Amino acid sequence: MTTSTDTPAQITDTVRGIVAEVLAVPADALSLDTDLRGVEGADSIKVLRMIARIEREFDVELEDEDVFGVSTIAEVSDVVRKAL
């Protein structure tokens, strides 16, 4: 589990790793500005899995309106940082 003392870069790297694993794509294929809705194989179930894994990893509860209002790794990382 990560902690609230993680740097923004560490949070982003963790989020990118979770996204890559859930969507079954190489992490280095995902830039900070990649629109996650456009990644091959991404669907609503995988997005929910991603969010659940991120919440467990960071021990936070993300608000639905925050989560569903973002579409890139950078934006998801920002939501996580605000929740920490």
From TrEMBL:
Its domain of life reads Bacteria
PROSITE patterns given for it? CARRIER
Which InterPro entries does the record associate with it?
ACP-like_sf, PKS_PP-bd, PP-bd_ACP
Keywords attached to this Swiss-Prot or TrEMBL record, sorted alphabetically, are: Phosphopantetheine, Phosphoprotein
Tell me the ranges covered by the Carrier domain, including all copies: 9-84
Q: What SMART domains does UniProt report for this protein, alphabetically?
A: PKS_PP (SM00823)
User: What protein is this chain from?
Assistant: Carrier domain-containing protein
Could you tell me which species this protein originates from?
A: Pseudonocardia ailaonensis
